[in-house]
Amino acid sequence: MGTHFLVKNVKEPIDWTVEVPGSKSMTNRALLMAALSEGTVELSGVLFSDDSRHFLSCLTALGFSVECDEEKKRVAVCGCGGKIPQKEAAINVGSAGTAARFLTALLGFSDGVYTIDASEQMKRRPMRELFSLLAAAGAEITCLEEEGHLPVRVCGAGGGVAAGKPPEFSLDISKSTQFLSALLLIAPALRQGFAVRITSGKKDGSYIRITRDMMKAFGVSVSFDGECYRVAPGAVYRRARYVVEPDMSAACYFYGAAAITGGTALVRRVHPDNTQGDLKFLGVLEQMGCTVRDTAEGIVVSGPAEGRLRGIALDMNDFSDQALTLAALAPFADGPVQICNIEHIRGQECDRIHAIVTELSRAGITVREEPDGVTIYPGWPQPCVIETYGDHRVAMAFSLLGLRAEGIVISDPGCCAKTFENYFELLDALTGCHADCAEE
Q1: 3-class DSSP state for residue 71?
Q2: pTM for this structure?
Q3: Which of 414, 373, 39, 413 is CA-nearest to residue 218?
Q4: CB-CB contact of 395 with 412 (8 Å)
Q5: CA 75 – CA 247 distance, rounded (Å)
Q6: 380 inside domain
Q7: Same domain membership, residue 139 and residue 9
Q8: In a 10 Å sphere around its CB, with 0-12 CB exposed, 13-18 middle and 19+ buried, how is residue 427 labelled?
Q9: Are 348 and 124 a contacting pair, CB within 8 Å?
């Protein structure tokens, strides 16, 4: 994969059947729970990508026994019952937000000393709220570069708390729900149980529900009373096998392609019982004029004739990864598309609101930026090079523009290695194009 990818404009409605990788979010949650389980856990449907490989390498550096079979998408992890084998180690989480937040929480309550490094991109992402909670619990957190950000040196709190009443922590999750998921997931490392009281206006979310559902599947229940999450004492993960769902976020790009071309896309093994929040995007496509139906092979989305989508206004806080996808569909709608309550995506792999505004404007589309969202007006994208900011979701989402409009080039397509290594190779095969991947 070179530095640029020219997306082929398709002349007819698409008719695609695809298979997407396993969910990144579920893969990394499953890896952590397997490592903290009693005994060996075999995971199947595992995503192998930059993020998950960093998570796997971190587990190995921490002393866990891990066996991988990438061809069969399987990983076997020998769990250590909530303990970390290595008491001193240096790990690098790359650009993986899940690895950064989950492993920092685990090491913060350990009885060891660790250094956590990261990519330049991950070093810019927020960590302060998690660091503050761990420091209050007794961990020593030393920021090695910028305060409130990775890299850090962590001297664990030694199991976290004294015997007696389970502790109660306070946490703001307005910038990232991964802070809460991290604390919940490491429950077996704090056998006496705990409570987490949420101090922000946002108190729940789709990724938190994924965490709770997966923990329940591994034998640990989390209660929630609207303000406080609680894990009872004696939490232990026990599970021999676990199957990771296909990545709903990835599936949505192909469903989006059907929407704007008036075609049809079937994604194998994606069904209405998929537990990921991005399943809600299918309801958005229905509101915009698409039809959605489940089949034995997977969900099929068919777009309206000639991709004539309806304008829409909606709150995407609970499935904000698809804000970029909707932004790429918006120019082809018959009216404005307004997306709100997504301010937190400014602190993800890049400032995604800024990316939406800048890149659609570059393509000649009128966009109004709001503090917590955008309004996008109908228009026809003009030829341009889309800057991706090293963000896999910017690259994949804005590739959809090129299916309808000529001359859309995606810079740095290789950034998709974070979650979907062969996305552009697959798009190349589906469109039958010969990408211009020449080096600058």
Answers
A1: coil
A2: 0.90
A3: 39
A4: yes
A5: 17
A6: yes
A7: no
A8: buried
A9: no
Judgement on whether residues 267 and 333 belong to the same structural domain of the protein: yes
> In a 3-state reduction of DSSP, which class is residue 301?
strand
In a domain, 439, yes or no: no
Question: Which helix (DSSP H) or strand (DSSP E) does residue 324 occupy?
Answer: helix 323-329
For residue 339, the cross-strand partners are 314, 374
Question: pLDDT tens across 146-196, in order?
Answer: 999 999 999 999 854 544 567 999 999 999 999 999 999 999 998 889 999
Asked if 322 and 183 sit in the same domain, the reply is no
Closest C-alpha to 296, from 276, 265, 266, 275 = 266
75 contacts: CB under 8 Å, gap ≥ 6? 31, 34, 42, 43, 46, 56, 66, 67, 68, 69
Residue 186 domain flag: yes
Q: What CATH number is associated with residue 114?
A: 3.65.10.10
Query: Alpha-carbon distance 2 to 425, whole Å?
Result: 11
* 10 and 34, same domain (yes or no): no
Give CA separation, 162 vs 106, 157, 383, in Å. Answer: 17, 10, 62
Q: What is the pLDDT of residue 240?
A: 97
Report the amino acid identity of residue 204. D
Catalytically active residues are 321
Residue 237 covered by a domain: no
Same-domain check for residues 327 and 378: yes
85 and 222 together in one domain? yes
Structural domain containing residue 258: 4-21+246-431
